[in-house]
Amino acid sequence: MTASLVTRDDRDGVAVLTIDNPPVNALGQAVRRQLLAAVQDIEADSTIEVVVLTGQGRYFVGGADIREFDHQPEEPHLPDVIDAIDRSSKPWIAAVNGSAIGGGAELALGCHYRVLLAGATISLPETQLGIIPGAGGTQRLPRLIGVEAAVDVVTSGRSIKSHEAIALGLVDHIATAGFLGEVLAFAAERLDAALPVRSSMRPVSDPGPGIWAEIEKRIAKTSSGNRAPAMAMEAIREGVRSGFAVGSAHERDAFLRLRQSPEAAALRHLFFAERSARRSRKTVDEARKSLGSIGVVGGGTMGSGIAAALAIAGLPVILAETNVDRLDDAMSRVGAVLASAAKREAIDAEKAKERLARVSGAVSVAAMADCNLVIEAVFEDLDLKKSVFSALAGHCKPDAILATNTSYLNPEEIVEGLPGADRFIALHFFSPAHVMKLLEVIPLENSSGQTLTSCLDLAGVLGKVAILCGNMEGFIGNRMLRRYRAGAERLLLDGYTPAEVDGAMRSFGFKMGPFEAQDLSGLDIAFRANQLMRNLGRPQPMSLADRLASKGRFGQKSRAGWYDYEDGSRTPLASADVAELIRSQRSAAAGRTIGDVVEFLLSEMVDEGEKLLASKVAARASDIDLVQVHGFGFPRTKGGPMHHATSRGRPD
Ligand code: NAI
């Protein structure tokens, strides 16, 4: 016997249907079947005049069961269930008690009224998963809130909160306290009333070719390799021009095609990978409160970026530098990041000012005595870092968490012999720290569970994806990067040019190829890191990039790197000097023995990934994918190198 996933409770002519399918009331096949049966029963039941549809718990409906997407769709299909509600002779009221996501939002749109609990949200995030709403969302939404608002909501996947929902005309009533009571009162008023115009029958006006062209341009600019937003817009346009029935058929067809696509499989993979990565259990507010004020030691590239990220996230910061002049420079860097975030409207200008005021400066770590967590980002120098940690151990509370942002040093050596071994950890941020979503978290031998939990809380407040890594030089990201860059140099020695390699990786979906990316970030960074390691007695091969950097070719900043740059221009130009260097290093036998640039570089990454898994530096292949997507610009629609490799050979 199947469990009852849709319960019914009749109250004076009102049937209250509750979807009860924990954890998110997903619309799996059994729920769809029971819901359709309920529609038919209620249609035939003369004692019922109005229907209230709601969800059990914190969700109205969290969406389709996206695990079903890997299989053929099974009847009854969601559009048929929603159409049955739409056509019902009795008014259906969606009582949206919590998040109505994807298919859940479409279900609410198919009802004749919507009552939203204050604080609940409605969203259609399908395009972010490489598909489009497939149960009338692209057809009903524009008929309820207009074309431009509907395109924005559908193509961005963003959530609509109660105040916006009422302003847009998406919902009829916002309920506050005593939700069900208010809904029943709303229902009672409709007992004898005529049905409103169904959302599928409402008129919708075409905004005209100029607006459509603007929308198309905007989507093309922002959807990087994901076809779904453009196809969602197309479905909306078809419905506006040819009517609900034609539009719905178009929508369904596009939905079914995209659902099978490799991009959708890749985006689904990342969705599950993100959900299975370790996360804070606290809400952002709870986590922010428990973290309190954070210390950052060193205000160079990383320290100032980290301080800015903390400030933007609403955390008070104490930033320490070696002297007043350096501190002034560091504080201006933090100010510049906040100002540019305000300019991009990533943060409200007033808020940016208020947040900057909560960043205080110091020239000694003694100022960090009350911090619960301190992040060290001074020069990559073992003795210096050891002295900073020793000072921190002397000044900070005994339970304050002390984290290093080192890239290549062994964090265990940095903290060796210091008291309170359970509170040390490494937190590896990526540059620019206020932009990159990746945070590598490296628990040390003696780090406590509490230390790790607090770092996950921090990642949650910063909106970063935390990936746990084993402690091995380069962790996950830099090991993969080194292999990728070495592979790219091998291609040059095999006869390819930098422009050919960059072009191939761009056509795969990277925004930049490996050489352009190095020119942007600066060849001096890796060069200095390699020199440091050589100085530490750890021999490093002299790469082509190191040879260029040793001649002052640092990239765009010196107008010469892998490419030449004219004054004031970022356009890469082929460099005769670089071509000569490559020729001089090439063996006589070189001649493009490697057949395909993309295949070769991806297989290098996958091979390195396998090694990271074997040595337990990475716990899961999906963690490697998340590192690549969130830290190194691997195209989301390809799902990361490990997913891309394993999905090969699967039918599209
Ligand atoms: P940086 O050279 O830009 O900044 C280092 C800052 O530390 C300087 O402003 C310096 O004045 C300050 N400093 C030195 N000794 C100090 C002390 N005793 N007290 C307070 N401040 C002190 O270096 P960057 O690039 O910011 O790197 C910092 C750390 O972050 C390094 O360990 C590096 O390996 C790591 N890292 C760097 C990344 C990058 O892309 N630059 C990425 C991830 C980690």
Unreliable stretches (pLDDT < 50, length at least 5) are none
Overall tally of domains: 3
Over the alpha carbons, how many angstroms does the gyration radius reach? 28 Å
| Largest sheet report | 8 strands, mixed
3D architecture notes:
With 652 residues, this protein is an alpha/beta fold. The protein has 3 domains: 6-260, 2-enoyl-CoA Hydratase, Chain A, domain 1 (Alpha-Beta Complex), CATH 3.90.226; 294-468, NAD(P)-binding Rossmann-like Domain (Rossmann fold), CATH 3.40.50; 477-544 and 580-616, N-(1-d-carboxylethyl)-l-norvaline Dehydrogenase, domain 2 (Orthogonal Bundle). The protein is 48% helix and 12% strand. The strands form 3 sheets. An 8-stranded mixed sheet has the order 13-12-11-14-15-16-17-18, with helices on both faces. Strands 1-2-3-5-7-10 form a 6-stranded mixed sheet, sandwiched between helices. A 4-stranded mixed sheet has the order 4-6-8-9. Helix 1 runs parallel beside helix 2 (78-87), helix 2 (78-87) packs parallel to helix 3 and helix 13 crosses helix 14 (324-343). The radius of gyration is 28 Å and the shape is globular. 48% of the residues are buried. It binds 1,4-dihydronicotinamide adenine dinucleotide. Residues 297-303, 320-322, 326, 377-380, 384, 388, 405-407, 428-431, 525 line the site of 1,4-dihydronicotinamide adenine dinucleotide (NAI). 1,4-dihydronicotinamide adenine dinucleotide binds next to helix 13, helix 16 and strand 16.
